[in-house]
Each structure stands twice: as structure tokens, then as C-alpha cells.
Amino acid sequence: MSDPLVIGGRELTSRLFLGTGKFASNRLIPGAVQASGAQVVTVALRRVDPDFPEENIVNFVPEGCILMPNTSGARNAREAVRIARLGRAAGCGNWVKIEIITDNRYLLPDNFETIKATEELAAEGFVVLPYVSPDLMVARKLAEAGAAAVMPLGAPIGSNRGLKMKEMIRILIEEISLPVIVDAGIGRPSQAAEAMEMGAAAVLVNTAIATAGDPVAMARAFALAVEAGRTAFLSGPGEVQQYARASSPLTGFLRDE
Amino acid sequence: MEIILNGKTVDVAEGLSIADLVAQKKLNPQVVIVEYNYQLANKDSWPDIKLRSGDRLEILHLVGGG
């Protein structure tokens, strides 16, 4: 069944986006990307430390993937726009994940600054995927601002707590026409499946895969879960009922009387 | 003379270009990107931009991130 996710004019067959942070070794990344099937892979932009030169992360991302730099480190729209432009100059293409954070404890995004950055970058031709706290009015403003998708958090970044924001995300899926990609907080494949079952367009996973005992196997587990959840969504799940409804016929019982 | 490189004050030789500095620091020019006084400096321009005292330079690269 053909069921592509179209973002920024690109047809994606995989609905699992993968982050490349926190892997114990960059050498684990190619296998994890491959096992996940991810076609969109996030990276970050940082200052070079000439005394401790790092490996080039791009060398570990299989060819053909869309490299999506995030704007992590940005504290306002101006900094996010600056980082996005530098990321594009670094050869990442024109996709960008806007991430604007000033809250150090929960790493919750600044929705207001995110809308401003989205507007500016979309006007410059970027394919903008903003990371936000799920809020319907914010999502509508992002759509007006030219976002290519909306990426609400399921739970705080790296927390592995799952879909704590489920009801608000459900409303976004129901009410806005942009793809809704659940980003952050998804810690288990079952949580990814849950997001997909309720109609999320995709999920972005990093910590849960990168910090697993076997990241490559976990990447595969997430790929299976995302596919299962998507297939379930498309299959039209049955209604939830308060009371039991017999699955076997209620006639023809073999009884003494 | 002193410039601000990645937020730190460093001493560099007079007349040094961005290309010279990247080479001196043994950085891979194919990988790093340079912002010169808050403006993106394209690789083509690196040999022509001679650093001056007080310049702000950011040398950046891509790393793993979510």
C-alpha cells in the first residue's frame, strides 16, 4: 500500500525520523539509521574545539538521507534564524528543525519565538519543522507562518516518558491539516505505535534509540512499531466501550437447560 | 593582535586570513563553516578576508543532535 508522507515536496516512505545525539559512538549511527529506515536524520551545529577535533557526523549518515539541522542552543528567534542559515551553509539542504529553548529544567520550547522564526525562515525558502509545546492556536499560527509540519513534544526531551501530552496532540491531529510529528519524550516502541495509531504523521526519536543497550536492534523495534501504528490507524480502529461485548455468538450454547 | 574566536580571545598574527587560520588549526575546510563578524563567510572568500584586531569569528561544524 502506497502511503507516502509528503513534506516540503519530498515523498517519504518512512515515518520514523531519527536524531543522532547521545550515541556512545558515531559508529553505531549508520546501522541505527539503516535499521530504523529513517529518511530524515537530525544533527546539531556547534563550535569547533580545535584542541579536541571531532569526527564529521555527516560521514556517519547514509547517503540519500535528508539532513535536518536543529537550532538547539537558540534562545530566541534571531538566534534560531542565524543557526538555520549556518546549517544550510554547512550543506544540510533547506530543512530545519526549529528548537528555541530557555527553560533548562524541562527544556520546553518557546512557542512565541518559534512562530517568529518559522515565519522568517519559511519566507527564506526553508522547509520549517518547528518543535513546540502542543497548543492548537500556536499550531494554527505556525501553519499560517508557512511551517511544513508541526512537531509537538510527547514529554520533555530525553525523558522517555511517552505521550504525556496525548490529548493536546490528538486535538492538533484532528484540527490542523499540517503533518503532526511527535518529537521528544518517546521512550518505547509502544509509545511510538500509540502516537501513530492516533494519527500522527510521523515520530522523531533520538534518546530512546541512541541510549538503548543495543541501539541498532532498538531502531528496528521502533521501525516496526511505527509501521504497526500507522497500519492500525489506516485500518480504522474499533470504538472503545465501557462494558464487555461478547466476541463469540450469544446463541447455541451447549447447556444442560 | 587579538580576535574573538568561538567566544574566546586569542592571539593571531597580523595579516592572517580565514583560510590561513583554518589551516593553522588543522581544521578540515570541507567540514567547517565560518561566521565572520556575524555574517556567513563563504569558503571562496576565506583567502581574501584578512583578520583585523577585534574581529569576531565563529568556526562551526555539525555534530550529533536530536
For this entry, give a set of tags:
heterodimer, A: 257 residues, alpha/beta, 5-stranded parallel beta sheet, 3-stranded parallel beta sheet, 8 helices, globular, B: 66 residues, mainly beta, Ubiquitin-like (UB roll), 5-stranded mixed beta sheet, 1 helix
Task: Walk me through the topology.
The complex is a heterodimer of chains A (257) and B (66).
Chain A: E1 5-7, E2 10-12, E3 16-19, H1 29-36, E4 40-47, E5 66-69, H2 77-92, E6 95-98, H3 111-123, E7 127-132, H4 136-145, E8 151-152, H5 166-175, E9 181-183, H6 189-197, E10 202-205, H7 207-210, H8 215-235
Parallel strand pairs in A: 3-4, 3-10, 4-5, 6-7, 7-8, 9-10
Antiparallel strand pairs in A: 1-2
Chain B: E1 2-5, E2 8-11, H1 18-24, E3 33-36, E4 39-41, E5 56-64
Task: Kindly summarize this structure in a few lines.
Helix content of chain A is 35%, strand content 16%.
Total helix count of chain A?
8
Major sheet of chain B: order of its strands? 2-1-5-3-4
- Gyration radius of chain B, to the nearest Å? 12 Å
Uncertain stretches of 5 or more adjacent residues of chain B: none
Number of distinct beta strands of chain B = 5
